Amino acid sequence: MQIRHSLVLRSTVLCTIAVLSVARPATAQNVPAPRPAQAWEVEIYGGLMSGTGPVDGTGQLPPAGAVYTPTVAGFPPTRLIPSWFFGDGALLFNQVRAGLPPQSQYPAIVPLDNALQTSATRRKSGAVFGVRLGRRLTDRFGAEFTLDVGRGSVTFIDEFRPAAEATMNSIESAFRGAFGPQQTVTTSISMVDEVGHELLAAGALRIALVRGKAAEPYVVVGGGIASAMGDSPSMELVRSLRLQFGASSVHEELDALSVTTHANLGGLLVFGGGLRQSIGGHSGVRIDARVFVMSDKTSTRVVAHPTTFPGQTEAATFRASSGLGILFSSTPSITSSLSVPLDEFETFTGSGFRTQVSATVGYYVRF
Predict the structure, then answer these.
(1) What is the 3-state secondary structure (H, E, C) of the chain?
(2) Where are the domains of the chain?
(3) Comparing C-alpha atoms, which of 208, 43, 201 is closest to residue 137?
(4) More confident position, 260 or 4
(5) What span, in angstroms and rounded, lies between the C-alpha atoms of 66 and 79?
(6) pTM score, two decimals?
(7) Burial per residue of 263-289, b for 16 or more beta-carbon CB atoms within 10 angstroms, e otherwise
(8) CA-to-CA distance for 63 and 272, rounded, in angstroms?
(9) What is the mean pLDDT of residues 279-289?
C-alpha cells in the first residue's frame, strides 16, 4: 500500500512540473512588449539674446558736384551740391571760407562724413522666443530644426546722434556768421529708433555626451540663415534758410537729408550645448545656450532733396573767395549751389560678421 501511494505522489509531482513547464511560455507570451521610445519631439522655449555692436565695412561719399558758371556777369563759378550737411556741400562751404582773410572768416561746417561712412547701428539685447522640432536618430545623435524670434531692437550707435547734432549746430553758426545774425537759420532733427527684430532659422546636430540617463548633457552644431524683420532706424536732418535783401527781396531754401539703414543678414553658424532633463517618458525640460555667428551686410543710405522756394521778387547773392563761390538764387537765370537731388546713395556697406549668444529654457513633448 505504501508503494502504491508513493507511485501516486510521484506521478502527481511529475504532472505538475509538466503543466508548469507548458504554462510558463504561454504566460510570457501574454505580457505586452515594451513600447518603442518616441522618435519625435517638439519644444517651445524662451530666454534672452545678447546684443551686438557695429560691423566692419567700407564707406564712400558721392563724387564732387559739377562745376557751374552762371551766364550773368559778376557771379562766380560754383559746384552744384545736394546738401550742406555732408560731402561736397560741406567741403565747398569750407573751401570758400578758407579763402577769405582771417578777419572775414565765419565758422566752418563740421560735416557728417565720418558718421555716414561707418556702421551706424547696433542690435540691443532682448527677449528671444522660439520653437524646436527634433528627431532622435540614435541613442547618441539627434537632429533639430529651430526657429528663433529675437526681440532685441536695432538702434543708432551712441556716437551717431551727437555727430548729427554737432553738424547741425555748426551749420547754424556758419550761415549766421556768413550772412549776419539778422538772417533766419533754423535746424531740426527727427529720428525713428529702437525698431525691428530678427528671425533665425537653423538646423543642428545634437550629440549626447551621456546616454541612457534621465539628465542628458549635450552639444549642438549646425547652420542656417538670419533675416531682419520690421522697420529700420532712420534720421532726418533739416536746415531752413531765409535771406532778406532790402525791403522785399527774399531767398528761401530748404536742405533736407534723410539717413536710413538697411539690414541685410545672411547665413549663420550655430554651436552650443545644454542639459535635457526627462520627466516621465513623454516630456522634459531643457536648459540651452547657443552662439550664433552670422553674416551682416547692413548698409547706410542717404537721400537729399533740396528745395528753393520762389519769392515775390527774384533774388540772388553769393559768397566767394579765390575764384570759387556759393550761390543762393531764386532767379531762373542763376542756379543755386544747393540744387541737385541725391537718391538712395549708399555711404556705408557692411561686410563683416556679428556674434550673438542666447540662453533659453524650454519644455518639450515626445510623440
Answers:
(1) CHHHHHHHHHHHHHHHHHHHHHHHHHHHHCCCCCCCCCCEEEEEEEEEECCECCCCEEECCCCCCCEECCCCCCCCCEECECCCCCHHHHHHHHHHHHCCCHHHCCCCCCCCHHHHCCCCEEECCEEEEEEEEEEECCCCEEEEEEEEEECCCEEECCCHHHHHHHHHHHHHHHHHHHHCCCCEEEEEEEEECCECEEEEEEEEEEEECCCCCCEEEEEEEEEEEEEEECCCCEEEEEEEEEEEECCCEEEEEEEEEEEEEECCEEEEEEEEEEEEEEECCCEEEEEEEEEEEEEECCEEEEEECCEEECCCCCCEEEEEECCEEEEEECCCCCCCCECCCEEEEEEEEECEEEEEEEEEEEEEEEC
(2) 38-366
(3) 208
(4) 260
(5) 5
(6) 0.82
(7) bebeebbbebbbebeeeeeeebebbbe
(8) 47
(9) 93
Reference 267, options 226, 221, 220, 222; nearest CA is 226
**What is the pLDDT of the chain when averaged over all its residues?**
88
C-alpha cell at 5: 501511494
Task: Please state which of the four CATH numbers 3.30.70.660, 2.40.160.20, 3.20.20.330, 3.40.640.10 is assigned to the domain occupying 38-366.
Answer: 2.40.160.20
Q: Are strands 234-245 and 283-296 parallel, antiparallel or unpaired?
A: unpaired
Grid coordinates given for 214: 534621465
In angstroms, the CA 192 to CA 23 distance is 82
Residue 176's closest CA among 228, 130, 240, 123? Answer: 240
Residue 310 pLDDT level (bands cut at 50, 70, 90)? confident
At 82, which amino acid appears? P
In tens, the pLDDT along 64-75 reads: 999 999 888 888
Task: Look up residue 366 and give its amino acid.
Answer: R
Smallest Cα–Cα separation from 271: which of 144, 160, 115, 158?
A: 144
Query: What's the pLDDT tens digit per position in 112-154?
Result: 999 999 999 999 999 999 999 999 999 999 999 999 999 999 9
Taking the C-alpha atoms of 63, 114, 52 and 231 in order, what is their torsion angle to the nearest 10 degrees? -50
Query: Is residue 85 within 8 Å of residue 342, measured between CB atoms?
Result: no
| Average pLDDT estimate for 339-351 | 96
Q: Cα(224)–Cα(218) distance, rounded to whole angstroms?
A: 20
